Amino acid sequence: MIHASSGAIHRLNACGKVAWQLLQQEPLSGYALSDVIAAYFNVPLAEVTTDIARLLMALSQADLVIKQQ
Fold first, then answer.
1. pTM for the full model?
2. What confidence tens digit (pLDDT) does each residue in 7-62 have?
3. Most C-beta atoms within 10 A of its C-beta, which of 7, 23, 54, 69?
4. 3-state secondary structure at position 2
5. DSSP assignment, residue 64?
6. What's the CA gap between 60 and 51, in Å, rounded?
């Protein structure tokens, strides 16, 4: 994906791509996003939670998502 303002290019793996598509539809908490991703890829929630937290942190640092309270 390309950041509109900076032109920076960000590459996502399959999990990241699905997460990004979901986030474009509606704001989701890290837990809710992890739950959907775990079910979609049929993997344990514990395996996904850390990866989603890292993804959300990276997206936030790149100004691609905004953390909501």
1. 0.82
2. 778 788 888 999 999 999 998 999 999 999 999 999 999 999 999 999 999 888 88
3. 23
4. strand
5. S
6. 14
